[in-house]
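Problem 12. The chain below contains 851 residues. Write out its predicted structure in token notation.
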Amino acid sequence: MFRATIKGLLAYKLRLALTAIAVVLGVSFVVGTYVLSDTITGFFDKTFAEANKGTDIVVSTGSAGGAIQDASDTLDTENISAAVFDTVKHVAGVEVAEGNVQGPAQMLDKKGKPYGGLGPPTLGLSWATYAPFSPLRLRSGRAPKGPDDVVIDAVSARKMGYAVGDEIKVIPNGPVRTFSIVGIVGFGKADNLGGATIVSWSLPVAQEVFKKGTAYDGIDVKVAPGHTVNDVIASIQDAIGPHYKVQSGAASAKEGADAINQGVKIFTTGILFFAGIALFVGAFIIANTFSIIVAQRSRELALLRSIGASRTQILLSVLIEAAVVGVVASAVGIVAGLGIGAGLRALVNALSGGGGLPGAYAGLKARTILLGFAVGTITTLVSALFPALRASRQPPIAALRQETHVAASHFTVRRLAIGVVASAVAVALLGYGMYGNDVALRFLWIVLGAFGVFLGIAMLSPLVVRPIAGLLGAPMARASMPGTLARENSRRNPQRTASTAAALMIGIAVVAAVATLGSSIDKSLHVVLDRTVKAQVIVNNNQGPIDPAVEQRVMTDRDVADAVPLRYNEFKYAGKKRTLLAMPPDKVAKVFDLEVQQGSFADLAPGGVLLHKDIAKTLHKRVGDTLSMGFPGALRNEVVRGIFGNNQVTNASYMISLAEYQQVYTEQEDAIVFVVTKPGASPSVVAHRLDTELKPDYPQIDVLDQKGFADQQAGQIRGLLNVVSAMLLLSIIIALLGIANTLALSVFERTREIGLLRAIGTSRRQTRRMIRYESIIIAVLGATLGIVIGLAFGSAAVGALRDSGLTQLSFPVGTVIVVLLLSGFAGVGAAFFPARRAANLNVLDAIAAAE
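Solution.
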């Protein structure tokens, strides 16, 4: 029996190879992602470890043992005072102690344009005078000393064409400042930190630039001989108290690397999600291919049954074929994944100027190899299981047939019942994920629900294949006889046509859902801003905070009636960090309609807080109640002064006065500034004038009217959604390969039929056209089903996000039309090789093939 299985594999090697492509692509995607992830995490682990190897102890803002969870505790301090530094310096066992500060600092290129900041961060650091403390290594020049000195990373210097001795403009927390480049540096052995730009000044200059005064962000410590690191850590902790974090340099390095690697994990999970979609699509193709092959081998399998093969042997025979395909495809996918991982690494290095990941290429780990084989093989086996079961039920009497004939499948009541039940359960899971209270598991329920919906629709879609295929093929049927044949061929076996179209349906559905979400976000932003925001001009910085001096500059414009800054920060309540908003209460009504339900903004003074209605309900708070809010170094019992109902623009549920914000927080920076123009002034003219006036000192800031601001925000979201759509391209490519594979198998199955058509006068051109038309019908059918499902998914997502400001449902009509047209063209491409093979069949051989 095993020998028969091997012969079966060899007999169908080309068809199985086409099927294996789906597994290869999916596995290579998974493996390449893990290879890149291992390379990045290894790079950061090593880089941070090397950078901190000269530091024995690190003191930072935070809490001993991590975040304090007691509800009565205050928020961690923002900075380390000079007094705390002096205490650390005099602890027994401390040989050297040096403070440091850091913050965002963006460089300008030689054309005055901001450099970096859209991806990796723009880092500004103080230079450590004690060399072992510094993660920066000079490549050329010297260390910064004077008030005008600065050093920059080697990658940025190379890409912008700067050298030692040049002047460079830098945007720290305030306006643009000009410095002289005295050195070029790297971060450890790397030329920068994974693409992040680096600027460094002497400590006094960095403190002044970042408005720290005499405070620090951290303290590096060298332990004196004769003392242990653990003993000195304990002594420092006892001396400065529990509201500071004291840990070893190795632990601090691991914490820094882990913080970055956490983002890598999120990125990896996102890519693996798309790989999962690709494999899910591939599963449909595998199942379809094995179904067709099993049907075409019905007489062969029946002969095996008639000579004594058991149902179990037939089942195992097909599953062994699937296992061999899965193992071989997984092996090829693993090798291809190495190439994809190397390509992704090269892309990361290119985007970071060639200095991003200069460390060793991680290559394949045992975990990645095992995962690749498991994913590919299990996917193939599960997909082939039902075709294998059908093969095992082949009756021996089928061996008496004179020819292999694959009858049109019939839609059974059992299939209908299973499809309806599966769809109902999937919709319930999807609904619970979108609207349920279990936030932690929402994404899981949504994913399971979506996959369930696809499976249910795939089971039920044969019901609608005949009418839809007939409708789509009607223009082709009217145009020519090949069109009529293609239409009937697509309707002949609705289950097969539906299964082939379902693979494309999945990818198109997700694209349509994403497009619906993007279109709805775009429309909602414009509508919400128009309804809620009364300010005509907005000052915004997508790359960081805004210097409060900008507000004062704006107020000097002749057409500006008022400027209202918004500030965000964290506080602690019930052991958890939450976000608050601060505004001047007397100006709230000038810029927003926040729908005050109780109390008044006029009553919002230091000691008071406003709550969004949902938070007030959750916390069981009413006007007059108190709320214990933990600020940096201070716990305040704030009185609830009002309840508001609209936070669609501010996205904040807690609001305090700007005056109190200035009391409790050290760093004073605006997040956004809303500008009210005087009557009769043109918002677009005022915005353009302010933008022109501010750009020389604040090139990172954009001043826009309402429409321009909405377009900017929507454009950023659309850019992200376009990346998601591009990632889905892999699943669509796999689906098109599935169409090509099905058509190739269909041509083999209909060899005698095609030979007869050729014998009665059908030309090669007409034969090719018939196969192409059939492919177009399948592709457009899959796209149509996908668009309908995708629009439904997108509508449900918009409904679920209504409370988050997504109030307008908008269907992407243009995208739908483009997708349908591209699907038709893709169908033509998918049919190229099957159509060519059909046209090149020898007429006499084809007629005799099934005799």
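Discussion. The CA atoms of residues 85 and 480 lie 87 Å apart. Students who got a different answer should revisit the alignment rule from Section 12.3.
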